[in-house]
């Protein structure tokens, strides 16, 4: 099958939601903050000016996740550390940014079901990270959710069982 035929048989990509875009920009901002230590205001300005897609993101979610994860980073790192199999400094910067964003949502946004947060984090890790980074992110955030949202995790698991 030719490349053109393969492309013709591939379903069109689903358009990204405003919330997915917000999470993507938040992860990019956290990545930049982790590497440069720049201020959140400078990072937000850079992201706004460097991508025309920024206007299509859910700005409230972007700001909540990026600013919140940076502000709460020390506490989030303490919560993540028991679930990571190596020092957090050894985790790739992309995966660290995805973990911070996901951890912030799990801890501070109980209105969003934890499976949604984890699925979004997996997709972000697939988009920006290494080949198996999404598995690592999934495992860490799943353990964090079980520790932080035990009642919700138990209810969902009980529902799946029967």
UniProtKB/TrEMBL annotation:
Residues 1-20 are annotated as: Disordered. The keyword Nucleotide-binding does not apply. The keyword RNA-binding applies. Keywords: RNA-binding, Transcription, Transcription antitermination, Transcription regulation. Residues 20-145 form the NusB/RsmB/TIM44 domain. InterPro entries: NusB-like_sf, NusB_fam, NusB_RsmB_TIM44. Involved in transcription antitermination. Required for transcription of ribosomal RNA (rRNA) genes. Binds specifically to the boxA antiterminator sequence of the ribosomal RNA (rrn) operons. Belongs to the NusB family. NCBIfam families: nusB (TIGR01951). This is Transcription antitermination protein NusB. It comes from Jeongeupia chitinilytica. The lineage of its organism: Bacteria, Pseudomonadati, Pseudomonadota, Betaproteobacteria, Neisseriales.
